[in-house]
Amino acid sequence: MPSLQAGYAPNLGIFLKSLKTAPLESSIENLISLLKRRQIRNSRPCAIATAHLLLQVVAKFRWTDIGNLLERIQEVGQRLVEAQPREMVVGNIVRRVLGMIRDEAKEDRTEDASDSTSTSQLGSPRRERSESGSFRTEGGATSSSPLRFVSTDASTLSEASGDDVFGGRSQPTSRPPLLTSHTSYAVLNGVPVQQSMFNLLSATPTPSSTPPHTSSPHGKSTISASSLAQRIVITTRDLKAEVISGIEEIIDELDQVDDQIAAYAQEHIHSNEVILIHSSSLSVQKFLLKAAEKRRFTVIVAESYPNDHEATHAAVTGKVSPDVEGDEMSTETFLKPLSAAGITVILMTDATIFAIMSRVNKVILATHAVIANGGLIAAAGARIIAKAAKVHRTPVIVVSGVYKLSPEYPFEFESLIEYGDPGNIIGYGEGALVDHLEVDNPVYDYVPPDLVDLYITNLGAHAPSYLYRIVADHYKPEDINFHKPELQF
Amino acid sequence: MASPGNIPQNEKSKSFDIVETYHQLLKEDPDLTMPVAAIEALIELLVQSRAVTVYETLDLVKTQSDYLKSRIPNSISLSAGTDLFQRYMISSLKPSSTGNFDTMRQHLLSNGRLFVSRAKAGREKIATYGRHFVRDGSVVLTHGGSRVVGALLGKAAEASKSGGNVRFKVIYVMNDARSSESKAVVSTLRAKGVPVATISEGAVGYAMGKVNLVIVGAEGVVENGGIISRLGTYQIALLAKAAGKPFYVAAESHKFVRLYPLGQYDLGIDQEVIVFKTDKEDLSSEEKKFAERTPEIEEKKEYFAPGMDMPKPNTAVDAVDFTPPALVSALITEEGVLTPSAVSEELISVWW
User: Fold this and answer.
1) Cβ partners under 8 Å of residue A87, min gap 6
2) What is B18-120's CATH topology?
3) What is the pTM of this model?
4) Residue A52: which of A253, A241, A248 has the closest Cα?
5) Cβ–Cβ gap B350/A372 under 8 Å
6) Beta partners for B223?
């Protein structure tokens, strides 16, 4: 299936250009291989690529009910995550899109229910996925079910559709037409559904705790089946536009996130402060530049040799190294270097961090990913800095877009750390040395939550212990493990 | 009709004793947790009662809950159940919600078994979440007879059998006062092929260096995210913190209880743990008052007719202690893995 007609795409810019013309399936394969080969790397490019790809998936996929669409996005998302599990933003963006679709569907459904007397009760989506097999047979057997109309509808449509590469995969399933979120707004037998702690006593069967067949997903519907089917066809079109604009909003957010974070800069950086930063990060750079508009301060830059020192030097001096090219360059090169913005910049090696820490007023760290327990994955060396800051009671601030916040709970922190090219430390030219040594080059560090004092995201400043709340706001619980079906309940 | 403050011992409820029902339920089903047993007892109460109005029913449930709480030496865990039950009734009857009294009552009466099975399924779910914390080659330290922890470790052991390749070991802290329970836990784990080492409570600090993570259960999870658990949990948590080992708590969310203890002696229950004695028995009453027990709270005297026995304070065997949230790395609940600060939010959503 992977056709290379879109051409060899070495970076994000070319990939985004090829998206418009290339067939969907080849774009997916293309992104997978780009992720695998690390030709698209770091959080932001990965997030942008994923969001654009999902936009195409939604646009080109012919679907009649939300269930199909969710399944399709899960399937694509799973492949992307498997291609590069350490780029956690890929999974985050997929979850955001899934959650947004669920919200849109729910909204749509509420409007739908409000203009009719329908009290139809749908199964919860989690249960939906895990038991889709049994549901299919059930739906087929119930002749009075409105779902039959949907299913025939779906199959005729997918036969007719030519532009969808989903082809052989599309199954004429008879799913309930629309899925609601995990807590249904609907009322079953007059007993309202409650919040999570009430799950124990609530009337709606929770996915895990009831035997599979105690309740039918079809419920009772007072509107005639055919009119329902018709309504679904109409609403589908609106929904598609809404979903697409929702993804575009996510893409916009990715564009604006650094500026939004930078808006908080002047609250946190004061005149004549000494700030320690580490490695190169667009977010941190914009943050400091914004503060420099009004204040004069000193920045000590730890260069993070050997993985990121060239980019760090470039951020300080404004000289772009020749190997940075393409799309990433376009924004970064036009940023003022720190030294040009009137900031006193001191460049140091990572080894001097502890010695200098007593002079530092604040540490500002960039991240690769933030995890739900409040810890973060950042460029190697970040933990040393955080630890040194802890010893000196220096506050550690982390700037990060919300899109980097991952709901996955890291069970083994070692598994999150990637090992990079050891050639950065000892060149392959030094054969005699390489023969006798084992050279490791970890690219990332895990910084535990108790070493961080404050997170600044595009939503504002948060304590590390509050991050779980932002996770809950941004991702639906049923999407958290979308790429690991064995963890679904 | 029982009015608040009176002992609910009128002719109607004579045949039904909620305390007895509660004990009976716990005895019949060893897998039942205290909050769920309390909920079951209250459902049983609704079945027996002939209350017809909303107020009458709420009042009856409230008085009987208070009565039940006053008769159990350590009512913290069960109060989570009675509170949840009452909040559920009240919020179902809010004008904003569409429920009405009869359907709600009917729902509660007819689904008693369902709640129990849900509570047990919740345990399974915690085990499924929690088993990922137990990695290959890790050493888990645990103590007490928590069924959730038992299920969790059992699940992890199953994963290793089915090719999941999780070869973990358990260090179990024996409790001399409850040696039969400790032995049962240890033999269950050993039967599943998990290597178990038993240590005494004095050896926890010694063993901590070999431990990768600590998993304990809890009787109650309080508002600030701290836990109330079997005596000895607090010291294990302190030692784990000192050694930099993660300390996880596995507990169902129905154990979240609205209580904000400020310290060990602020739990609202009587515990006879610290007992000062000298050789001569005749301490003056003043001295006795000062020295005899850990600080106590005022008993709910109104529930005790002159002839009735007061509940005995907790002795060291079933005493509990309070582990502050700063020592807890994460709570493994059926709602997911939560930070301690998430508990207050869950509680707020139920109470307001």
Assistant:
1) A35, A41, A43, A46
2) Four Helix Bundle (Hemerythrin (Met), subunit A) (1.20.120)
3) 0.75
4) A248
5) no
6) none
- For A208-245, give the DSSP string: TTS-TTSS-SS----S-HHHHHHHHHHHHHHHHHHHHH
Closest to A9 (Cα-Cα) out of A326, A41, A22, A18: A18
Assess contact for B4 and B300: CB atoms under 8 A. no
- Shortest CA gap B274–chain A (Å): 34
CATH class given for the domain over A263-487: alpha beta
* d(CA A209, nearest CA chain B) in Å: 5
- Its ipTM equals 0.70
B169-173 and B196-199 beta bridge pairing = parallel
Tokens 């947790």 belong to residue: B33
| Residue A139 distance to chain B (closest CA, Å) | 25
Q: How far apart are CA B335 and CA A200, in angstroms?
A: 11
B165 vs A: CB within 8 A: no
Is 3.20.130.10 the CATH classification of the domain at B124-260+318-351?
Answer: no
Whole-angstrom distance, CA of residue A320 vs CA of residue A313: 9
pLDDT tens digit at each of 489 positions of chain A = 444 444 454 678 888 888 888 888 888 888 898 888 888 888 888 999 999 999 988 888 887 778 888 888 999 999 999 888 888 899 999 999 999 988 888 877 766 555 544 333 343 343 333 333 333 333 333 333 333 333 333 333 333 333 443 333 333 333 333 333 333 333 333 333 335 677 777 765 444 333 333 333 343 344 455 555 555 555 666 788 888 999 999 999 999 999 999 999 999 999 999 999 998 888 898 999 999 999 999 999 998 888 888 888 888 877 654 444 444 444 455 577 888 888 999 999 989 999 999 999 999 999 999 988 889 999 999 999 999 999 999 999 999 999 999 988 777 777 888 888 888 888 878 778 777 888 888 999 999 998 999 999 999 999 888 888 888 888 887 788 787 765 544
What confidence tens digit (pLDDT) does each residue in A88-111 have? Answer: 899 999 999 999 988 888 877 766
Residue among A191, A406, A469 with most chain B CBs within 10 A, to mutate = A191
Interchain proximity B115–A199, CB inside 8 Å: no
Instruction: Sketch the domain layout of chain B as residue ranges.
Output: 18-120, 124-260+318-351
Q: What number of helices (H) and strands (E) belong to chain B?
A: 12, 12
Taken as a whole, chain A contains a residue count of 489
Q: Which of B97, B136, B212, B327 to mutate to test the interface with A (most CBs of A within 10 A)?
A: B97
The closest alpha carbon to B109, from B29, B173, B42, B166, belongs to B42
Task: Tell if the CB–CB gap between A200 and B254 is shorter than 8 Å.
Answer: yes
Pick from B67, B111, B122, B339: nearest CA to B225: B339
Q: What does the alpha-carbon distance between residue B247 and residue B237 come to, in Å, rounded to a whole number?
A: 6
- B261 cis-preceded (ω within 30 degrees of 0): no
- Which uninterrupted H or E stretch holds A278? strand A274-278
Q: Which helix (H) or strand (E) holds A377?
A: strand A376-379
Flag whether residue B215 sits within 8 Å of chain A, measured between CB atoms.
no
Q: Does B181 touch chain A (CB under 8 A)?
A: no
Question: B188 vs chain A: nearest CA distance in angstroms?
Answer: 25
* Domain boundaries defined on chain A: 4-257, 263-487
Taking each helix axis as running N to C, give the angle between helix B54-71 and helix B18-28, from 0 to 180 degrees, rounded to the nearest 10: 70
